Amino acid sequence: MWKRTWQLPVFLLALSVAVSSVAADQWQGKRAAVVFIYDDTLNVHLDKVAPALDAHNFKGTFYLAVGYPNFQARLDAWRALANNGHELGNHTMFHPCEGGMPGREWVSKERDLSTWSVARMVDEITMTNTMLQVLDGKTKRTFAYTCGDTKAGGESFVAPIKQLFVGARGVKAELQSPQQVDLFDIRSVVVAGQSAQQLTAMVDEAIAAGGLLVFLFHGVGGEHPIDVALESHNALLDYVRAKQQQLWVAPMVDVAEYIQAAQAQSK
Ligand SMILES: [Zn+2]
Question: Where in the sequence is the signal peptide annotated (predicted)?
Answer without folding.
Answer: 1-23
